[in-house]
């Protein structure tokens, strides 16, 4: 052990200065890095044991050395014989500094629970163990320290007490190793036990959405602001632009260190020191987060599953304010209990928290809950949804089904539930961090839901809805358009914007809804209106008789038809509007209406004429159709407006024709 500890100490000494240049190549990466958090009662020898393992004293503060007691987080690391690196986060054991201890517990892979042989389990042993259990730490080692200070029979009793203590917890099956940091007894066995546990620790996730909970901030001469923490969910690289959350301020990574070595890229699950450019120490504090840009949105409303400790002093009641610890963050949180009046000690329940200030959370994150006064750990839990769609009504069926689906552990249920609360939406609106999935996993689940008929992609666009959600939305749309038909039977239907506004959709998903509805055939786009496929304008007997008479007049004189005023007098404004909406009459302006077939013949003539001639004049049109200037001029002006033609002097040319000024009879400007 002495050789390993000495080598680790020398490496630590070499690694204490920050890199001289950003991007400098790092050392060869270890086979694996494991972050190990100490836990246990004050004066049970946690820091002394870490120093014996690593050669580094984790007590860095002058006050800690003067008092002989750990006050804040300490850090040290060592190489293990098998090629991995053990990175230790040493926490204070005194109850006055439990908040500092919690700041170090959030990013650890394993626990090193320390119990002194001469005292056995003590109050902070039990509280620290409860915290590890709430965080679902299932790998670690119990070190029974000061084993040289007691006889064999007493040591055996303490080991039995420790085994009974950890039996009901997530650490029930971890090895218990008697050690002495003074004599070195058991140190080799402790290292072997740590290595034996490493094999079972899940690999740190790499979801390509890096985040680091800041547990230390300081200034280093010549480099500026440095923050440290355990990197989760992704990688960081020198030169990356990152966000400091919850404020969202962006900054750049000048340099990185991991376990005392300069690296160009920090790996997930490792302890990392980040040198940030252009940000002052006063602008960042413990509990803030450094994240990949745009990967996380801070939140204040959080849905969670909570478990109370069996020895919690009282049930958790609705609207109780607790302190929520997550990563290195501590934030007051008001608890809205869902579906129950209270949660009894030892029981679990669903809670929506309102946080006093924003923080970064992702689905699946674990947290610890404490009372502010008296200071006491009472429970913890798991984040189900870091961005719930609403403040839930506590006993409504929708709230209950929401929590049941998210706590089921089934990815398809989670995606379907979150989709149902945000639909219609693009896949990117289903943030992977909110689902506890990668983007690729989310897309696979969406495809599976579509294949099972539980979701659909609207109109071939990247806009998604659940099948039930689409059925309900389609029914609402049918009802809105149908109501329009019922109240305005002589109109084809409402304009699209009216339907969008009443459905309360933004333009992008509404376009997908229209595509899906029209592809299904029950909704028809008809000019600038929407109508149900079953709808057509039908006139009553009296109106139909008037319409027939009017259309006969248009047929008798198609190029010198009745004026718009005359037409309105003949059939009424409503019926005339319907004829125009149906396209049976075309309003070209200046009180001139043409019957649709006559209008198309005029347009065809203009196009054919301009195919053989450079331009067309009012006289050309007037003479060809034996009409008058009263009708020919408004018609050509209408073609200008709809960009079939454009005026050049007194004539018209096709849009896109050259700028010539053809001859023709002079036209009075309109």
Describe this structure in words.
The protein has 670 residues and is of the alpha+beta class. Among the domains are: 31-198, 3-Layer(aba) Sandwich (Rossmann fold), CATH 3.40.50; 299-402, Translation factors (Elongation Factor Tu (Ef-tu), domain 3), CATH 2.40.30.10; 403-457; 577-654, Arc Repressor Mutant, subunit A (Orthogonal Bundle), CATH 1.10.10. Helices cover 34% and strands 27% of the residues. The radius of gyration is 38 Å and the shape is elongated.
List the helices and strands and how they pair.
Layout: H1 2-14, E1 33-40, H2 46-54, H3 62-67, E2 74-79, E3 85-90, H4 98-105, E4 110-116, H5 123-134, E5 140-145, H6 152-166, E6 176-178, H7 187-198, E7 211-213, E8 216-220, E9 224-232, E10 236-237, E11 241-245, E12 249-258, E13 261-263, E14 265-266, E15 271-277, E16 289-292, E17 299-308, E18 316-317, E19 321-326, E20 329-338, E21 342-343, E22 348-359, E23 366-371, E24 376-385, H8 397-406, H9 411-422, E25 425-426, H10 432-435, H11 439-451, E26 455-457, E27 463-466, H12 467-487, H13 496-503, H14 507-520, E28 523-526, E29 529-532, H15 541-556, H16 564-571, H17 573-581, E30 585-589, E31 592-595, H18 596-612, E32 616-617, H19 618-625, H20 629-641, E33 645-648, E34 651-654
Parallel strand pairs: 1-3, 1-4, 4-5, 5-6
Antiparallel strand pairs: 2-3, 7-9, 7-16, 8-9, 9-15, 10-14, 11-12, 11-16, 12-13, 12-15, 17-22, 17-24, 18-21, 19-20, 19-23, 20-22, 23-24, 25-27, 26-27, 28-29, 30-31, 32-34, 33-34
Helix pairs in contact: 8-9, 9-11, 16-17, 19-20
């Amino acid at each position: 052990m002495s050789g390993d500890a000495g080598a680790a100490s020398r490496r630590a000494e070499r690694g204490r200065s920050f890199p001289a240049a950003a991007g400098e190549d790092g050392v060869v990466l270890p086979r694996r890095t494991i972050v190990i958090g100490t836990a246990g009662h004050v004066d049970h020898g946690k820091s002394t044991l870490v120093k014996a393992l690593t050669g580094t004293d984790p007590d860095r503060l002058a006050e800690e050395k003067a008092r002989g007691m750990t006050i804040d987080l300490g850090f040290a690391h060592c190489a293990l014989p098998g090629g991995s690196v053990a990175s230790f986060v040493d926490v204070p054991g005194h109850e006055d500094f439990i908040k500092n201890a919690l700041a170090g517990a959030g990013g650890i892979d394993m626990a090193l629970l320390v119990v002194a042989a001469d005292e056995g389990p003590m109050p902070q042993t039990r509280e620290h163990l409860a915290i590890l259990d709430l965080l679902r730490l299932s790998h670690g080692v119990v070190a029974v320290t000061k084993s040289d200070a007691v006889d064999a029979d007493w040591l055996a009793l303490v080991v039995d007490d420790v085994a009974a203590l950890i039996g009901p917890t997530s650490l029930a099956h971890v090895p218990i190793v008697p050690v002495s940091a003074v004599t070195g007894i058991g140190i080799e066995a402790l290292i072997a036990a740590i290595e034996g546990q490493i094999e079972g620790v899940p690999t740190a996730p790499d979801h390509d959405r890096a985040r680091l909970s800041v547990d230390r901030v300081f200034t280093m001469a010549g480099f500026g602001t440095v923050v440290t923490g355990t990197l989760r969910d992704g990688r960081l690289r020198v030169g990356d632009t990152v966000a400091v959350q919850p404020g969202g301020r962006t900054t750049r990574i000048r340099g990185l260190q991991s376990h005392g070595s300069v690296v160009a890229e920090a790996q997930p699950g490792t302890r990392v020191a980040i040198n940030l450019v252009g940000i002052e120490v006063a602008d960042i504090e413990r509990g803030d987060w450094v994240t990949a840009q745009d990967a996380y949105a801070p939140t204040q409303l959080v849905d969670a599953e909570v478990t109370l400790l069996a020895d919690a002093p009282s049930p958790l009641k609705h609207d109780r304010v607790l302190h929520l610890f997550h990563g290195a963050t501590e934030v007051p949180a008001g608890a809205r209990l869902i579906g129950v009046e209270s949660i009894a000690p030892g029981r679990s329940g669903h809670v929506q928290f309102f946080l006093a200030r924003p923080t970064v959370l992702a689905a699946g994150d674990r947290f610890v809950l404490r009372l502010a006064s008296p200071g006491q750990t009472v429970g913890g839990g798991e984040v189900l949804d870091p961005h719930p769609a609403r403040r839930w009504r506590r006993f409504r069926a929708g709230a209950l089904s929401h929590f049941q689906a998210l706590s089921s552990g089934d990815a398809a249920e989670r995606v379907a539930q979150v989709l149902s609360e945000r639909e219609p939406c693009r896949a990117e609106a289903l943030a992977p961090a909110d689902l506890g999935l990668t983007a690729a996993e989310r897309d696979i689940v969406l495809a599976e839901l579509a294949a099972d008929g539980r979701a659909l992609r609207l109109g071939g666009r990247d806009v998604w809805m659940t099948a039930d959600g689409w059925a309900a939305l389609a029914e609402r749309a049918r009802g809105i358009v149908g109501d329009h038909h019922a109240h305005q039977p002589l109109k084809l239907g409402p304009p699209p914007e009216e339907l969008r506004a009443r459905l309360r959709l933004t333009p992008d998903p509404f376009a997908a809804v229209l595509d899906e509805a029209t592809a299904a055939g029950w909704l028809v786009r008809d000019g600038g209106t929407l109508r149900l496929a079953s709808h057509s304008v039908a006139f009553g007997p009296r109106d139909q008789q008037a319409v027939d008479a009017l259309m006969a007049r248009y047929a008798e004189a198609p190029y010198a038809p009745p004026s718009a005023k005359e037409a309105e007098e003949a059939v009424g404004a409503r019926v005339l509007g319907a004829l125009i909406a149906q396209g049976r009459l075309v309003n070209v302006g200046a009180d001139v209406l043409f019957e649709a077939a006559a209008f198309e013949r005029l347009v065809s003539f203009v196009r054919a004429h301009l195919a053989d001639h450079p331009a067309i004049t009012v006289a050309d049109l007037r003479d060809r159709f034996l009409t008058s200037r009263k009708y020919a001029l408004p018609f050509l002006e209408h073609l200008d407006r709809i960009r079939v033609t454009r005026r050049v002097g007194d004539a018209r040319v096709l849009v896109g024709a050259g700028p010539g000024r053809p001859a023709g009879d002079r036209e009075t400007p309109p």
